[in-house]
């Protein structure tokens, strides 16, 4: 455990049950008794009971209270300890924020971010904050002279907490949460649950880089707490992941909403026309030097404005306990491996180009996307029929991909790269089925150097012959090929806290 070195630990009996309640941070004003769940507030040396806090939903996260790690901040590495946890319910599901107590006596927040994590510290904007309604999703605003894009503006409420916390919004009272993101990956969160609003600023982190000690033992997870009967057919359903917000019944394929927790009323939607994924759920593939498990699958379709031709693609949700989530996208023009972007690429609405992390991308398609079928587990509440406005971009040089996806309350960017179909088959040790993975890969063409002059000449001759033949075909309306495009890992909730 990290030692503050700046203050003594304060301990006093709980006003509700008499059990010891400890405050490690001088900035913590509230604590939740671990025994009777009383919410207590500290006023000097006196503890007062405010009421009883709801128990946190056991999400089987690898994190837990008193787990300790190290974070690089301002040129130095500081130890920290997780001393509190708050769970919020938003319009698109539930998320958790952990209170981190740093060695210098300050506190920070380790929060969920699209299946990954963001480490933030309290910040000031240098000016009076406008009302939350002034932050329109997709707009650009300046913070200390730096442009930020409004990625989310959601309505949320505190549903549970444990440990000690420096702030405690009224339980069950809705408030707005606004998230801003910059082109270089910064995240700025404005919490309107307190007055004045609380501002946090930080960046994405990986758990494995935080050198955690005291994480939960994966083998100690009790699966029985995550089993329930399907509300549609009654068959047993088992939830495997800590962050699952929706899943499907393995028997009747109904889509089940878990965003309110297993103790809440489970909503379901019957699904018909099941689609069989090429890569079975539960398969493990090697990507980026680590094993990733297929935990979710969805089929989506899109249509461009003014066009009645629909196109489809499929997305596999991959999970790694320390690194979070990736998307493996299967479109007719090839495979791609992508992840949600923490930052907001530089892009003006309607512009044909975008820039992200120094790479320029050009717009390739704009369309309306819809989710048609899902299977497995997801860390956001998936609904059949969800619709979003999507824009896809391709790197001017290279195989890079970028996608923008907007719903009513959030904008999500995803980035990644194309993959050769053979590499995808090999990653899952399905080389004997490599033919099933083949798509319209541009692999050799994109490589450039792999094409000889003779090949180029042959291609040109063939094109000339085709043009001549087409010009001689009177009355032919011609035709065209529409690449499926795909959302490259986009999804309908996104945002910083889902």
TrEMBL record:
Domain DUF4178 stretches: 79-205, 281-420
One Pfam family named in its UniProt record: DUF4178
InterPro entries: DUF4178
Alphabetical UniProt keywords: Membrane, Transmembrane, Transmembrane helix
Transmembrane segments: 445-469
Top-rank lineage group of the source organism: Bacteria
Protein name, as recorded: Transmembrane protein
Protein species of origin: Acidovorax ebreus (strain TPSY) (Diaphorobacter sp. (strain TPSY))
